[in-house]
Amino acid sequence: MDMTTYSGIRSGSYFKLLKSYYGNNLNSKAQSLVSSSVSTSKDSAKTLASIESESEDMVKSAQALYKNSRKDDTDATYKKVAAFVSDYNSLINAADDSETKQISRNLESMKSLTDINSKSLAKVGITVDSKSGKLSVDEDTFKKADSTRVDALFKGNGSYAYAVASKASMLEYAAKNEAEKTNTYGANGRYTQAYNSGYNYNMFL
């Protein structure tokens, strides 16, 4: 068992043992003190889980583009780019309201990367909303665009798609790092979604 998991179990067990000793007689002040002792995250477990999930999806859709060595037809490429755009916007939705500085910095870095590439993206029918930073793609314009421009943006390790995947991976890491600060046990003594590695131990509780 690694030290992170051990520390998490100890922190969660503290609340579990208090509940066992005092039953349901813990007053609201005591409940608050126990809660604060095991969670220092500024974001909820739900928010962090959403950021993790959307980051993973973003990486996968980006990889489907930049790792693709074969020559797809226009329709197949458009579907992959449309999925990329959708996952990009979903990740922004998930991370926009985060109060964690590391997450906010990584999100702004991803948006800045897109802004830098906005002119190149526009030439293939992809526009960037100036307020939200979200993407939209016009199917007709994209399908009529020069394929070399599309490949330059979305194929290979030096592409825009590769860079977005890297930013999304950093967002996922930041969310997982922050999740370690959240409560590891629920009221029933079982691991919560905020502590995914603990799921393996639930069967023993």
TrEMBL record:
<feature type="domain" description="Flagellar hook-associated protein 2 C-terminal">
    <location>
        <begin position="97"/>
        <end position="159"/>
    </location>
</feature>
<dbReference type="InterPro" id="IPR010809">
    <property type="entry name" value="FliD_C"/>
</dbReference>
<dbReference type="Pfam" id="PF07195">
    <property type="entry name" value="FliD_C"/>
</dbReference>
<dbReference type="GO" id="GO:0009288">
    <property type="term" value="C:bacterial-type flagellum"/>
</dbReference>
<protein>
    <recommendedName>
        <fullName>Flagellar hook-associated protein 2 C-terminal domain-containing protein</fullName>
    </recommendedName>
</protein>
<dbReference type="GO" id="GO:0007155">
    <property type="term" value="P:cell adhesion"/>
</dbReference>
